[in-house]
Amino acid sequence: MKKPMITLVSVLTALNVLTACGGGANPSAKATTDSSAAPSTASTGPVNLTFWHAMGGANEEVVKKVAKTFNDTVGKEKGIVITPVFQGSYGDLMKKVRAAVQAKDVKNLPDIVQSPASETAYMKDIPYVIPAQTLADQDASFRIADLEPNVVASFSYNGKLIGVPFANSTILLYYNKNLFKEAGLNPEQPPATIDELGQYAAKLTKKNGTQTSQWGFSGTPDLYHLSSWIGMQGGYIGNNRNGRSNTMTAVEFDSNGTMKKFMTGWKKAVAYGGIQTGTETNQNEEFAAGKLAMFVNSTAGLKGVLNAVGGKFEVGTAFLPKVDAGDKGGVAVGGSALYTMDRGDKAKIDAAREYMKYSTSAETQFVWHSGTGYFPVNLKTYDLPDMKAHLDKNPLFKTAINQLHTSSPDTQEPMNAVSSEISTAMKEEILGYVTDKKDIDKAIASMVTRINKALADYNRANSKN
After folding, report:
1. What's the pTM value of the predicted model, to 2 decimals?
2. Using an 8 Å Cβ cutoff, are 107 and 100 in contact?
């Protein structure tokens, strides 16, 4: 079994104290014996940082804007130049990271890398990653306390922040207010539970014989959805607090009853007849075309949805419908974080810390939020006059923020390295139950077996004992 990250952090902290007394040592307190690591050298010119990211399209332009502003201000003052380099999708980016790490090819790693929340378990075990907590502990002006607690919890292991929150979001319900009115539904009262979701969807669905011209809702639950639908009930998907207090070795949703409760409610909602499930569709396109009344998607997709709709109808946003009206856990945080790589150069590590501080500052987070739709990770952003004016002008963005602030920091995606296998097992077994191919107990038992095997296989192959 993998050793918990607290062991690594404790060692780093102890070494920091010793090297601080000696003076002039690498502040990351990481010694590397690999010959490919770049030697620590005194910088004679600007410190150049390479930043690998996966933000494409319009979001890439905001990444470039933030980097340029940093280079023209803090970077100019401190002699730092950061260069963002788009690496394709998260999958493409992580393949390159894994290849370099496996080959111990430190010189070809970037100084800063963006990694999705689903890869946190992997990132925390990379020997070249300097935990964000370590960087913050070395600089009093790097204030983790100013960051959203739910987001900090999402990228923390054993109480220590591993990655610096970067592009973060939650799940949100999108709906067509015009279609609500046509169906006799109050557009200001969206469904609050999955049972109401099923009832609303049935009223919003249009069929011509055996053909459906308009679905009320479309979606097939997987790990992305279940992280919130299990968490809001007050339960964990996996043991050891979803893998955040120690390595996740088994699921808990079977023993705590949360999965059975969700699946029972979901099947009932589907039975109303207005939910399309098990079919792969482009929900954004169907929604924009007026052929889909409701769907769930990332809060970061709001700008894209509004652009696609183009004013053809009024868009509504709402909290993710609850499994039960009394659920209080809220929704899980997704997105990505930034990680600093120790490549053996103290100047680069110090420079990376400066960029991390800048990227999470209140002002930068306003630029990031207003340009991309990801919510600000700095709580002080909400005190800025520009932010207040922005939310007054764009009230739909308030839904995501209000949902975040009413959610528990304990509601999180499970931290593990087999998220794809977990998601597939959930999706297939839930669909098997909904389509009457399996009874609920057999479906859950099969789900548990598949997921626990994937966890055991990975943990065994990557054990440090």
Report:
1. 0.87
2. no
